[in-house]
């Protein structure tokens, strides 16, 4: 697809507006709000004071030829039976998540809605963000009160949708294209494959990898997210599959894996712009990403398959993470493919951009 775009997004702090569209729902912005209001975090993760910063990793320029490159690559999620972006506009999006129609703020939807108002009025849930409380209070259910969770599906995989206080519902649908790509790599490898899913959230990528036959290590700093991911594993009927669920700071985890000599064939990392480990460790995308990318390279098996980085950023373009990945994977052969993840809208076919990505693929 052919629409490279410079994505310097508006980084001005936004206040929720009464009666109108709330601010942009990019994950990055949500995380920034969390940063400003720590008491509102969905999953308070630590009672500890922030840990003192460890010595920063000394980064040495990697020798060897750069991997080939493919960019811009726009990876698209089209409307499907499990999920559809039905319409967007006026700072909001109308989505179908399994049985429910949901309206959420979408700051990038600066165009007009394509569907008539009556289609939007048929929504089952609307994120209002009205209260400072956690949970359901931030949602309005126009037809009838709904429970906090509901059954969802991705490509035959059952999991739990949930109305969270941060307008998320437990899945980032644009990631589905990465999951499909990863599942193909695992199946085609025809050998045991080890996958590391860093910042794994509710575990969909981990479940897709396990179903495809991989041995999976899933890392997230939030106990709540890990609990939800484990519930999803049971719901998906994958309880017997080899998934290690680890509640830890992602950076600490990879540093330890490097020291121990643990190795992976596929690594996914989908970090927030800002986050905290369970012991208060601070993750800042722009500060922490080069070291994490470098460590990810060094914990690959001798025959690795792919490293997939997604960024929900307000300042970078995909060229920035492309350059970082190409530098880091110099001498490894393969290709660096970079671009954006978009969701294709059902009503008028417009593309809703969600994030930047860059991935190294061995072949
Ligand atoms: C952007 S979400 C990841 C979404 C996920 N990859 C998916 O597609 O569903 C960010 C996740 O990173 C976790 N997180 C934030 N800071 C972290 C840290 N320092 N170490 C590990 N996980 C962290 C959060 O708990 C959250 O679940």
TrEMBL record:
One example GO MF annotation: methyltransferase activity
Record keywords: Methyltransferase, Transferase
Record has Ribosomal protein as a keyword: no
Residues spanning the signal sequence: none
Stretch list, region Disordered: 1-59
Pfam family, one: Cons_hypoth95
Ranges of biased composition (kind: Basic and acidic residues): 26-59
A single BP term in Gene Ontology: methylation
Domain of life: Bacteria
Keyword Glycoprotein attached: no
Alphabetized InterPro entries for the sequence: Glyco_hydro_b, SAM-dependent_MTases_sf
Cited PANTHER family: SAM-DEPENDENT METHYLTRANSFERASE
Name of the protein in its database record: Class I SAM-dependent rRNA methyltransferase
Species: Aminobacter carboxidus
Lineage per the UniProt record: Bacteria, Pseudomonadati, Pseudomonadota, Alphaproteobacteria, Hyphomicrobiales
């Amino acid at each position: 697809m052919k629409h490279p775009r410079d994505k310097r997004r508006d980084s001005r702090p936004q206040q929720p507006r009464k009666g109108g569209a709330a601010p942009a729902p990019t994950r990055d912005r949500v995380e920034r709000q969390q940063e400003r209001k720590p008491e509102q975090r969905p999953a308070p993760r630590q009672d500890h004071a922030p840990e003192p910063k460890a010595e920063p990793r000394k980064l040495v320029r990697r020798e060897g030829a750069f991997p080939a490159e493919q960019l811009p690559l726009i990876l698209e999620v089209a409307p499907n039976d499990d999920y559809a972006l039905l319409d967007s506009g006026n700072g909001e999006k109308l989505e179908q998540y399994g049985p429910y129609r949901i309206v959420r703020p979408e700051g990038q939807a600066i165009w007009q809605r394509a569907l008539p108002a009556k289609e939007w009025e048929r929504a089952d849930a609307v994120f209002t963000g009205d209260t400072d409380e956690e949970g359901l209070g931030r949602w309005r259910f126009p037809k009838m009160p709904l429970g906090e969770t509901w059954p969802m599906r991705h490509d035959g995989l059952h999991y739990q949708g949930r109305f969270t206080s941060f307008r998320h519902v437990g899945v980032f649908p644009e990631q589905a294209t990465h999951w499909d790509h990863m599942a193909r790599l695992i199946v085609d490898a025809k050998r045991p494959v080890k996958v590391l899913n860093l910042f794994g959230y509710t575990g969909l990528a981990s479940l897709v990898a396990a179903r495809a036959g991989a041995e999976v290590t899933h890392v997230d700093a939030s106990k709540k997210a890990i609990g939800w991911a484990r519930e999803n594993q049971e719901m998906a009927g994958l309880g017997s599959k080899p998934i290690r669920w680890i509640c830890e700071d992602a950076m600490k985890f990879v540093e330890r894996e490097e020291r121990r000599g643990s190795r992976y064939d596929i690594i996914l990392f989908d970090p927030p712009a800002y986050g905290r480990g369970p012991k208060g460790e601070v993750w800042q995308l722009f500060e922490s990403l080069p070291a994490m990318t470098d460590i990810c390279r060094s914990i690959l098996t001798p025959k690795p398959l792919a490293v997939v980085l997604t960024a929900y950023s307000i300042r970078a373009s995909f060229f920035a993470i492309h350059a970082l990945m190409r530098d880091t994977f110099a001498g490894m052969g393969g290709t660096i493919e970079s671009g954006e993840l978009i969701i294709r809208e059902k009503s008028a076919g417009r593309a809703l951009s969600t994030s930047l990505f860059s991935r190294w693929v061995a072949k």
